[in-house]
Amino acid sequence: MKAVREKFAELDGRTVSIFTLVNRQGMEVSCLDYGCIITKILVPDRDGRMENVVLGFDTLEEYQQHSPYFGAVCGRHAGRIAGGEFELNGKTYKLAKNNGGNNLHGGVEGFDKKLWEAEVTEGPDSASVIFRYVSKDGEEGYPGNLEMKVTYTLNDRNELEISYEGTSDEDTIVNVTNHSYFNLSGDLKREILDHELTLKSDRFAELDEALIPTGKLVPVNGTVFDFTEGRKLKDGNTSDNPQNIRVGSGYDHPFLLAENENEEISLYDAESGRRLVVETDQPAVVLYTSNTLEGSFSIRGVTAANHLGVCLETQGLPDAVHHPEFPSCILKAGESFRSVTAFKFSQE
């Protein structure tokens, strides 16, 4: 196993580095210490052709100017927080309203825009990049000094594991995820609407007009939100369900997982033969089919367009701080937040 560190760019006089992990099968994962951004994942198709299966850029400037969180770690709190504020221990904390009147993915300068400390480790069967960042008390409005550690580990079984650890000296809220946009066709040859998703989930979170969970968890049975037996993503794009229309014709919804760490999420592209299985210890996954990606920029030579990628954001439910019936996002002072998600690639 090999881990290589190289200079990628400069940011305010500091070096931004790119790290590349390579296993014995030839799979490669590249990532930055800026935002812990995963820039490339090279995996073979059924014919052995190595291609990139995530959306990303080749320059820091493109990430700063155009990126809708491509490959980044989102936090302190991934997803939306209604009204850009929350109450904890009788005190109201006001956050940036960077998404209409709401807070999104940690605020104006969340984890995705921070330069993290990083180190690499190499072993006989795996290689890792370990990122560390201290989010100071009051940063983006959140309480407590939060020490975060994120580790990307690639092994020889073509599995990428992401682990998160966090401790705070005050009670705070934490909900972190990786926001990679996957496209298993390879090198963005096709959109993702013909990808087939299988999801062990019997309920999804209903969204209001601002895309905030209403608190209602809706049974998927009999709807285009039922992925238990497998379903192509285009079903959400063509659906007349008001929930699909509300998010721009597609999916941008949290699904409550019925199982954990048991092949609960599986994405397949029949033409390339690539399969991605995602396993997590988190209670939910946000499925986003890049319904609003269209723009006047290019993604490695491909014009930005809707449905070029699909996000599988393993996390707690968005806006859980306002919904006591949801799994809690509160991290008590001195306690540890821990989470692990594995992305397993194969061919059929």
UniProtKB/TrEMBL annotation:
Pathway: Carbohydrate metabolism; hexose metabolism. Keywords: Carbohydrate metabolism, Isomerase. It catalyses: alpha-D-glucose = beta-D-glucose. Beta-D-galactose binds at residues 179-181, 252. GO terms for biological process: galactose catabolic process via UDP-galactose, Leloir pathway; glucose metabolic process. Belongs to the aldose epimerase family. This is Aldose 1-epimerase.
